[in-house]
Amino acid sequence: MDKANQSEQTKNNILRAAQEEFILKGYDKARMEDIAAKAGVTKMMLYYYFNSKENMLQAISQNILKSAQDTLRSEFITKMDVKKLNPEQIKNKIKELITPNKEIITFIIKEFVKGSLDHTLTFTILKNFYDLLLETFEARGIRIKSREQYYIRMFFFQSVPLLMYSVFKDKFLDVFGYDEEMTDRVFFSKFGEVIFDTLTKPPVK
User: Fold this and answer.
1) Are residues 178 and 154 in the same domain?
2) CB–CB of 78/138 below 8 Å?
3) Residue 194 lies in a domain
């Protein structure tokens, strides 16, 4: 393995170890030395790649969004007919993206609300994600008439509800005793309708 690939592998090992420690112990109680030990690196090497827990958490957040970007770009460009996009397609794709990362996404949201994450950087990452969606849709013939309203709708009516659902769903199911599959079906059905409206409805005057 060449040095570049080895370095990338080491970074990935560190981030996987950090993610496990964050979920297991919480952000405040996770220790750099424990992350280094779990990743199989020295503490000095850990600090070479990431000088703080915040840097690691930001990198984990960016990796999740990058994976989502790559998946959505591939799906929309090569498979989906964007002009015939429907809420069911969007619902299924969003659910596929969220499910494997449920634990760490929930953790990141809690830390974001607590202020452990840099808000400016986090919103910049989200904006870049929204920009990618815009570029993809516009390249396939869908024109967004108001970028300002698109960003507002994407954040407050898509991102926030989706993230809050990830955080509170388990507690909701405990209290109400509902079936998880049915609850997911109801939420994502409505979520798909709302994001479809965001992309297709004319701007508010």
Assistant:
1) yes
2) no
3) yes
